[in-house]
Write a structure and sequence with these properties.
The chain is an alpha+beta fold. It is 25% helix and 29% strand. The two termini are 21 Å apart. The model has no long low-confidence stretch (mean pLDDT 97).
């Protein structure tokens, strides 16, 4: 799995909150071209690639776009009020280092702090609610006014990207922001590599679709191949109270907040996991929507499913495990190869 982890590290290192994904998408295109495939970018910026094969066409989708922030206001004190990109929670942004990407190409560093963050000064520090309006990005620049910050070239609409803090422990735990869903993209890219390098024989026509607007709900709402009959979102598997999945497993979601996944396709996933002896879990996700949901909402006539490596602390500082990624890769491969 080391090659997959190396791929993941590269992907995590490319900042790509929703709407700011061109560099990450271009990287994915080049990786697929280097393997001998012919990927295409949609007008929206997603990456579609046929991996070959014949038979009932299936799309495996994963998304490159992540959570993040955007400058909503340059404040009078020179600091920045942010608005969230996707489901970024301000509680998970506090004390995080971040970069501000200006439209001129300059990049500035800063740290997300609560307004008046010193416990030696603010007696209500512990009681203060963390919201995007009660927090600010403190720039690592000598600026104390709106005019001084604007002189740097920083303006409303500039993207703010948080430090992912990627690491893999000796015990195989993968810790980072944005494992949702770059871990799945790395898994699909590794699957594409194994088809070429290991000579895997596909039993179906297989596409991968790397989307860039999943975190705001319309990643797979367009651009899917016309002959597709099934879509399987490869996204994070939820780990939390009341759920069976753990980080070392592959999760097969039977229902999320949009409703149940296709019964027959989910059954095929379960049968494949059993046949291969995979460590898997079945779960219902209470607050979740996937690219497969978006495809059906857009009117595509597809059977849909959802799988993914178990991820703890979703939308925060997330944790998965190499074994979870391996079980997911084996489930993807086992469904469409001999």
């Amino acid at each position: 799995m080391q090659k997959m982890l190396d791929e993941l590290k590269c992907l995590i290192g490319i900042d790509s909150p929703t709407g700011f994904t061109k560099t990450a998408a271009d990287y994915s295109v080049e990786r697929l071209k280097a393997l001998g495939y012919s990927p295409e970018k949609t007008n929206k910026g997603c990456v579609l690639c046929c991996l070959g094969g014949e038979g009932r066409p299936v799309v495996f989708s994963a998304h490159l776009d992540t959570l993040g922030g955007m400058v909503a206001e340059v404040k009078s004190n020179g600091r920045l009020r942010l608005t969230r990109i996707g489901g970024m929670n301000p509680n998970n942004a506090e004390c995080e280092n971040a970069k501000v990407y200006t439209r001129s190409g300059k990049v500035y560093e800063g740290c997300m702090q609560m307004n008046d963050p010193s416990v030696h000064v603010n007696g209500d520090y512990s009681k203060q609610e963390r919201t995007w309006d009660s927090m600010e990005l403190v720039l690592d620049e000598f600026t104390d006014s709106k005019a001084e910050t604007e002189k740097l070239g920083i303006a409303t609409g500039d993207y703010v990207c948080f430090d992912p803090r990627f690491r893999v422990t000796d015990r195989g735990f993968i810790k980072s922001r944005f494992l949702d869903d770059k871990l799945s993209v790395a898994i699909l890219l590794d699957f594409a590599r194994r088809i070429k390098e290991d000579g895997l024989k596909l039993t179906r026509k297989v596409y991968i679709y790397i989307t860039v607007f999943e975190e705001v709900g319309h990643g797979c709402s367009s651009g899917l191949p016309e002959d597709a009959l099934d879509i399987i979102s490869v996204d994070m598997g939820c780990v939390g109270q009341g759920l069976a999945c753990r980080e070392h497993q592959v999760s097969i979601c039977v229902k999320d907040s949009h409703g149940p996944y296709n019964y027959e396709l989910t059954g095929e996933l379960i049968d494949t996991a059993k046949r291969l002896g995979l460590d898997y879990a079945l779960d219902v996700y209470p607050y979740y929507g996937s690219d497969a949901d978006a495809a059906l909402d857009a009117g595509y006539d597809l059977r849909h499913g959802l799988i993914g490596a178990g991820v703890y602390a979703s939308h925060g500082y997330e944790r998965s495990h190499v074994k979870g990624a391996e079980n997911t890769l084996k489930l993807v491969s086992g469904l469409v190869t001999e």
